[in-house]
Amino acid sequence: MAGIFDYSRRRFIQLSQIAVGSGIGILFSPKFWKNSSSLVAAESPIYYVSPTGKDSNPGTFEQPWKTIQKAANTLKVGETVYLREGTYPITEQIRPQNSGEENQWITYAGYPGEKAVIDANKIYVAPAVGEPPFDHDQGAFQIENKRYIVVQNITLINSHNAGFTVRDSHYIHFYNNTVINTFASGIAIWQNSSHQKVLGNTVINANDRNMQLSHPDFQPQNPPHEAISIGSIQQFEVAYNHVCYCKKEGIDCKGTCSQGQVHHNYIHHLRRQGLYVDAWKGVLEEIELYNNIVHDCECGIAIGAEGGSEVNQIRIHHNLVFNNRATGILMARWGQDNLRQNIEIYQNTIHHNGYGQGNSEQPYWLVGGLYFYSKNVKNVKVFKNIFSDNNYFQIGYSEAYQPQGLAGHNIQIQSNLIFDQNQVTYPIYLEEWAKDYVYETKGIEFVEMQPDFKDALTGNFYWTSDHSLEQTQDYWGAFSPHQPETFWWIINFPPTVQSSLKVNE
């Protein structure tokens, strides 16, 4: 499941292409790679950095530089630096000084087959004073006011602020990097930026308060942001990333983001939500979440409008959301609870969510499969999903929707598969945090049956039989019965994006 690089044409080509409905999607298809790879001319210089090098060296394979910042000060249009095997302790941020150009990208890459590790433990991060962005909002590797840069196959650890951060930049792409142990985001891309790609990266233990530097005169703060934070940018893709064991949310599209795709990410074992879409300071719109796997988080997927005027045109489809402590998909009510409208939720598999306190007699703070907790949602379509064995309800809505119910907000729920073993009387009362009476609905034209999953306990949500609707190509849930089983999130994940240049030894 990997792409390869065509050296003759300086472009990525894919090895396989499988329909999105299979739950696998299109791996690095041409439309995603257009204007994206390290498109560097063959004659462009290639430099090298090694922990055993010297910055007075010419930066060749035989005589490499010692520091990455030496490369960041030197690289010009179309040039590449390879980081050789070893650890690079840094005491200051790495900041690229120059931009690439279209078809002549600047590339920072770990040498193929070797592990280059940036250790940011010795970077001083000042306490938060004054107006943001604070020092802890910046990155150990910071790209600012730049264009056409690729960062690829680099490991960054032990950052007391963020790992990789982008500000006010365009066409900045991250491929197959690993970030471990950060106080803020592992990867963050902020406003006034566009045409960003975050593909095939791994983020572990982001937003850990233990990574904050202590300052005697200042109280410790909560870790800011999320494992992968996408804030107020346009035209972006976040895909094939592995996000796990982090202390806050996994992937968050927030602010005034627009025209974004978040797909084929594997997100698990987080203290908060796996996927979050949340408007701030304006309208967030045209975001598509599809073919993601989310389990063992708090809520699986949440849609909020905490501080922005509106969330508009959101599509959530072909996701597998299971075994999360709270609600599978939540229309949240955090912050100002502003408008969310024109949302489609279809062909997701939402299974066994909301059991956060085991067999406690009281419901967890949020439960169920799909919960319309927000009272400011309208024009929503929910169809051809599987809602099975979620705690207390499969589809529920707040008492705030009474007396008209969901229909009064043009929320259409139709043709879903429902499997419900709850023995409760509605409305139920969520006392701990939500303080809400929840009503249950199955919508119209629903089918009540137990889905014939092959082995839900081990995460196999393919069916043992054909579950097409009336023997057509139509089906319920995230996985088509007409495609072969492929566990892309388990086998060789994240997929490898091969080096974009020939190795010049």
Apparent shape = elongated
Structural class category? mainly beta
The CATH architecture comes to: 3 Solenoid
Helix percent band: under 10%
How is the main sheet built? 13 strands, parallel
* Count of distinct structural domains: 1
Distance between the termini: 28 Å
How do the strands line up in the largest sheet? 3-4-6-9-12-15-18-21-24-27-30-33-36
Oligomer: single chain
Low-confidence stretches: 1-42, 499-505
**CATH T-level topology:** Pectate Lyase C-like
Q: Which whole number gives the mean pLDDT?
A: 89
What is the CATH domain class? Mainly Beta
What does this structure look like?
By secondary structure, this protein is mainly beta. The chain has one domain (4-471): Pectate Lyase C-like (3 Solenoid). 2% of the residues lie in helices and 38% in strands. The protein contains two helices and 42 strands. The strands form five sheets. Strands 3-4-6-9-12-15-18-21-24-27-30-33-36 form a 13-stranded parallel beta sheet, with no helix packed on it. A 13-stranded parallel beta sheet has the order 5-7-10-13-16-19-22-25-28-31-34-37-40, with no helix packed on it. The longest helix is centred in the N-terminal third of the chain and has 7 residues, at 68-74. Mean pLDDT is 89; it is low at 1-42 and 499-505.
